[in-house]
Amino acid sequence: RNDNSSIPTFRAANNLTYPVNVGRNIARSAAGTHFVLASDIELYPNPNFIPMFLRMIAHPFYQYTLHSPSVYVLPVFEVAEDVSVPVDKAHLLEDLQNGDAIKFHEKICSNCHTVPGYVEWLGVVKDDYTMDIHVTARREGAYASWEPIYVGTKHEPEYDERLSWEGKADKMTQGFIMCILGYDFHVLDNGFLVHRPGIKTIAQANRPHQQAKQWAFIQKTIAREISTLYGDREGCTI
After folding, report:
1. N or C of the chain: less Cβ packing under 10 Å?
2. In 3-state terms, what secondary structure has residue 109?
3. Is the pTM of this model over 0.85?
4. Pfam families from the entry (predicted)?
5. DSSP 3-state assignment of 111?
6. Are 31 and 50 in contact, with CB atoms under 8 Å apart?
7. Per the domain annotation, does 3 fall within a domain?
8. Within a domain: 102
9. Order of strands across the sheet with 133-137?
10. What is the pLDDT of residues 36-85, one digit of tens each?
């Protein structure tokens, strides 16, 4: 149901799952810009992120990233329900220190959203509204389950529209393809996303039947399709 109405939504009335990847693909394809941040509606980028990113990517030093498969990753965080969304990285670090913020899904799937070089990332604080690439990594090894949210273009592989939000792991297959294609994931040092206040618990996120069904479909069907279409690459897994 809608928050402000007793009228059931079409989705609720028909017991439908949420087609999150359909929405992501439509939003990305409809964007009128070259670079696209395919983020979820409840994830808020830090203020001034766009001008900082555009200044960085226009600098000659970072032109090399435009000539190979590359995306630009924003670390993601959650804050407590009674905490305001941080306005800059200094405030985010203060919330983390006070226990008012955690890594996104830290209580559910910490490996899914821990960026490479995270501890060092916490030590980079800038007051001059500049941005740089903190570290460049691949989605492999310790980060084989990584589901990064990033700035890319319309040329990145699409999200698989057969996967639902309820079943989880809805970005895993895209990440698997990007690993096979040799994408570089550039973690930004002064950009981040914060989820709408309220830290989700395991109990709130647990949907065992839908998760098991979707994971089986990913493993038995989608993984084989991807291997047929793109081949295999050592270190790349779903």
Report:
1. N
2. coil
3. yes
4. Glyco_transf_49 (PF13896)
5. helix
6. no
7. no
8. yes
9. 36-37, 150-152, 70-73, 184-188, 133-137
10. 999 999 999 999 999 999 999 999 999 999 999 999 999 999 999 999 99
